[in-house]
């Protein structure tokens, strides 16, 4: 998900990049991977049609497209929930069981319209406590937004307990849900946390921002894991045999998950310490690392265009592939057709540190109907990119 307030790409938490090789590539390099993870949590993938057209502000978003939702299971305040895993935004939140679904203007509409799964966070019986006073308010690029309060309670991940995790509990939501999750698990930069220590009538700003690490960072701060974490995702093509819930890989804390084999080439990229927040907030003690590498794209004719070097936003919460304008403009006209077998797509690679990682042609497409596919690339701006 792309947060509304971000003009630039969200910065990721510490991240080790190990990409599978492509058959098209023959080069290899030695590489050092992070240590084996101390904790690994399964991720599920659910294909979902987010068809709530009326929620969309942006007309260029395909409203009936199938999205691959990644979900994690977590227990917050004693209540087990599934949350939408999103590396492209920062907040962790879930709905209050008594939440109201609202339209774009804030009018209450049928709860079903929001398409949350039929559970949430029951503030009457949950462990932990409300942060009082507090105000949670976030919004996403698709026009969705939510309003609620801040809450603190223990979080449990597969039996591992993280103390005093802060998250948002939503009482009003304008949301095009997936029918499977009841909230969102944001792993982006903590500089865009949007819980504030005051009531909703007081203007929000950095002075009143509650800066809260996500559970992954809390696990490290609480000595439960090393500082690395890895997201290892399976590729699940979109054919009809893959309807339903699929194992999608692991969120691994403290390194790389045990049973992930990196074959062929991989790229290791440096991290830098990152200190100044997107909104000017400076939180030295909590400074995070950011990926410090630049990449380009390779495709027929790419040598003829001038490419800005870009650091893509790695976003598990958004469909589509954001390409820099020059790349988008030169690549798109070469698409012969968007046949669902991928045969009409010219080769496209993401080049990292000089290594080409080719996209599978099927991953460049999204499916709206059994034989109805479209190119899921979009223009992400002169220096933008999102994968
Ligand atoms: C909250 O609002 C009250 C009333 O406007 C103000 O006096 C107080 O300083 C605010 N607190 C914070 C932490 O912003
Ligand atoms: C799509 O384009 C490819 C490459 O030109 C071609 O082989 C294929 O037959 C085309 N498919 C359709 C349905 O037009």
Automatic annotation (TrEMBL):
Residues 70-387 form the Peptidase A1 domain. Residues 1-18 form the signal peptide. GO terms for cellular component: fungal-type vacuole. PROSITE patterns: PEPTIDASE_A1 (PS51767). One of its GO terms (biological process) is proteolysis. It holds the Pfam family Asp. Belongs to the peptidase A1 family. This is Peptidase A1 domain-containing protein. It comes from Kwoniella heveanensis BCC8398.
């Amino acid at each position: 998900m792309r947060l509304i307030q971000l003009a630039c790409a969200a910065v990721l938490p510490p991240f080790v990049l190990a990409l599978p090789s492509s058959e098209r590539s023959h080069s290899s390099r030695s590489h050092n991977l992070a240590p084996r993870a101390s904790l690994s949590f399964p991720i599920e993938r659910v294909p979902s049609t987010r068809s709530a057209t009326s929620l969309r502000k942006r007309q260029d978003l395909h409203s009936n497209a199938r999205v691959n939702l990644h979900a994690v299971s977590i227990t917050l305040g004693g209540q087990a929930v599934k949350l939408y895993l999103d590396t492209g935004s920062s907040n962790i939140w879930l709905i209050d069981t008594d939440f109201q679904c609202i339209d774009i203007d804030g009018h209450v509409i049928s709860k079903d319209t929001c398409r949350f799964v039929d559970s949430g966070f029951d503030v009457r019986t949950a462990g932990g406590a409300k942060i009082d006073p507090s105000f949670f308010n976030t919004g996403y690029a698709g026009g969705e937004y939510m309003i609620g309060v801040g809450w603190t309670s223990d979080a449990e991940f597969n039996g591992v307990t993280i103390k005093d995790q802060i998250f948002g509990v939503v009482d009003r939501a304008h949301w095009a849900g997936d029918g499977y999750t009841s909230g969102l698990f944001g792993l982006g930069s903590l500089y865009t946390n949007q819980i504030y220590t005051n009531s909703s009538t007081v203007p929000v700003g950095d002075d009143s921002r509650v800066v809260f690490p996500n559970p992954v960072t809390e696990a490290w701060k609480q000595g439960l894991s090393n500082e690395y974490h890895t997201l290892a995702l399976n590729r699940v093509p979109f054919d009809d045999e893959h309807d339903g819930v699929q194992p999608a890989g692991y969120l691994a804390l403290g390194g790389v998950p045990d049973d992930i084999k990196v074959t062929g080439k991989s790229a290791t990229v440096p991290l830098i310490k990152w200190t100044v927040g997107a909104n000017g907030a400076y939180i030295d003690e909590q400074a995070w690392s950011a990926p410090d590498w630049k990449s380009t794209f390779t495709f027929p004719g790419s040598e003829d265009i001038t490419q800005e070097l870009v650091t893509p936003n790695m976003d598990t919460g958004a469909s589509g592939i954001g390409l820099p304008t020059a790349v988008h403009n030169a690549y798109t006209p070469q698409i012969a057709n968007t046949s669902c077998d991928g045969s009409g797509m010219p080769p496209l690679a993401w080049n990292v540190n000089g290594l080409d990682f080719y996209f599978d042609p099927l991953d460049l497409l999204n499916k709206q109907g059994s034989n109805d596919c479209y190119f899921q690339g979009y223009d992400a701006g002169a220096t933008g990119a999102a994968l």
